[in-house]
Amino acid sequence: MKRDAEPGSSKVDVDGTAHVTRVVPPPRAVSPEARAYLATPPWGAAAPDPHAPMWAAREQADAALKMLGEMAASHYEVSVEEMQIAGVRCHLVRSSPEAGKACGRVLINLHGGGFVMGSGSVVEAVPIARMTGIPVIAVDYRLAPEHAYPAAVDDVIAVYRAVLEHHDAAAVGIYGASAGGILTGQVQARIAHEGLPSPACLGMFTAAGDLADLGDSAALFGLSGFWGELLLPPDHPLSELRAYLSGADARDPLVSPIHADLPQFPPTLLVTGTRDALLSGTCAMHLALRRAGAEAELLVFEAMPHAHWYAFHLPEAQQALSLMADFFQRKLHRTQA
Fold it and tell me: At 311, is the secondary structure helix, strand, or coil?
């Protein structure tokens, strides 16, 4: 029996491909701020050029991220110091009023930006440094397409080795969002491959573990949920993932950590949202970790798009950041540096 008012429709091909039309109202559970956020184009009046590669907008994106980082540093009352660690440019973010909570612990943050932008970004480091009282080293790893895989992994491993000279691995955590979350998994796979001591914990936020298959959500959402274009497939000439891999085999366990030795992964927190392009990738990585017997926690936020915690004004962002901070506080061992 056909209903008079159809909310949507779908047709499924014999191979499982779905052709979907739906009307998706904002859920009642989200905050008023989130409703306004979901209704507003993230780019304002100037939409990105869909015919240009993401790295063509690097200068503008990096400037915007720098401004956001400076605003966050002022709001959260942290200090940001640029330095070189093992020849890699980094930023050390510290919260002086909370410094007594550090107890020899340190976090390493790997920023997002599709592997092609985000140079110098401390947006992910600032709130966590404040909320935990733990110093955060934001690694300014080399970017594609100029520096393809494994350049970024090499940079982070160099920083991690240097950090281990002054800290117990049990007092170190590594985390990142988007490209930085993927990179976090790649770094852990490399740590295990090289026989280095694993960090106390990982934060793989809105991050796929299988770069050969980003799953259903990548075909449903863009980086801003229902706004904008879908992610380009890895074989597309303008794909930032293609620029990053530059011919590297996505089935290699060091490239796609979902194929790595997952029982060696330390406790891992994974965070995503139901309108996140990498929702499927994040959930698949979580399931793979659990199947391998690794300790893994998954947080999924209703209606939230990719890396919604960048929008600090959202109650949902503050909740996500608070839960991330709590995870790091619980998992990093207190030692004397």
Answer: coil
Give the separation between CA 180 and CA 335, rounded to whole angstroms.
27
Its pTM stands at 0.94
Q: What is the pLDDT of residue 220?
A: 95
Encode pLDDT of 199-228 as tens digits. Answer: 999 999 999 999 999 999 999 999 999 998
- What are the phi and psi torsion angles at 194 (to 5°)? -90, -5
Break the chain down into helix, strand, coil percent, rounded to 5: 35, 20, 45
Q: What angle do CA 25, 323, 138 make, to 5 degrees?
A: 105
> Under a CB-based contact definition with an 8 Å cutoff, are residues 259 and 288 in contact?
no
Stretch (H or E) spanning 61:
helix 58-76
pLDDT tens digits for range 251-272: 999 999 999 999 999 999 999 9
Q: Which two tokens stand for residue 35?
A: 């409703």
pLDDT in tens, 90-113: 999 999 755 555 689 999 999 999
d(CA 35, CA 167) in angstroms, rounded, equals 43
User: Which long-range contacts (C-beta less than 8 Å, at least 24 apart) are formed by 284-292?
Assistant: 284/208, 284/209, 284/210, 284/215, 284/258, 285/185, 285/204, 285/207, 285/208, 285/209, 285/210, 285/257, 285/258, 288/209, 288/258, 288/262, 289/262, 289/265, 291/262, 292/262, 292/263, 292/265
Residues 330, 145: contact at Cβ < 8 Å? no
CATH topology of domain 51-331: Rossmann fold (3.40.50)
Q: Which amino acid is at 306?
A: H
Residue 227's contacts (CB-CB under 8 Å, 6 or more residues apart) are 41, 42, 305
